[in-house]
Amino acid sequence: MFSRLHAEYKAIDLPDRANFSPQQMQTASDQFLDQMRRRHSVRDFSNRAVSREVIENCVRVAGTAPSGANHQPWHFVAISDPDFKREIRLASELEERRFYSGGAGDEWLKALEPIGTNDQKPHLEIAPWLIVVFAQRWGHYDDGTRFKNYYVPESVGIATGFLLAALHHAGLVALTHTPNPMKFLNKMLDRPESEKPAMIIATGHPADDAKVPAVAKMKKPLDEILTVAS
């Protein structure tokens, strides 16, 4: 993608400009806040199909995220194959059993109690899609020379946030999953050494009887997450 010998700065006019009035800005921000307040992390999925085209568009949204030096240090693997999903579930549950049997420590397990999680992850098999997020620690110029990526965790985190918002905007629910370690995903999905698995996102429609933990609706008020320096 990048040229080692012909990298240079070239400015172009800003191609897109919203130019909202103050009232339009307020309305747009109110509407987006209302929409995102309806986002839930769901563990109970329906097996109702979701088209590949919808998933691709959501990943395209993730690909618009800002990144260090515009290196875009991410790769997404979308999986709908039932056999693949089952393999991922079995491998993840193996790591989760170690986690919940003492690997996590008492304090961490205590913090998870209100969420109601355990080492069983059926959603990894039931959800119609799994999206595995990989962080690319280095890349290659067009001539094959290796280059370092910068601000990788920050960039991948922003892109993942874009992806979750896009899935919600498309009418889907999602659940992030981070078994530790996740190195098994490189081999299973044939990803290179330069990439580190960051997250598994299960996504689809919620089951008819889907539940969420009550504590998940307890969000910090604005005065606890915002300081305005004037």
CATH uppermost class of the domain at 50-208? Alpha Beta
Annotation field: number of helices: 8
In total, the number of strands is 6
The gyration radius over C-alpha positions equals 20 Å
CATH topology of the domain at 50-208: NADH Oxidase
CATH superfamily of the domain at 50-208: NADH Oxidase
Q: Major sheet, described briefly?
A: 4 strands, antiparallel
Helix/strand order? HHEHHHEEEHEHEH
Mean pLDDT: 94
Q: How would you classify the helix and strand content by structural class?
A: alpha+beta
Low-pLDDT parts are none
| Silhouette | globular
Portion in helices: 25-40%
Distance between the termini: 43 Å
Proportion of strand residues: 15-25%
CATH architectural designation of the domain at 50-208: 3-Layer(aba) Sandwich
Side-by-side strand order of the widest sheet: 1-2-6-5
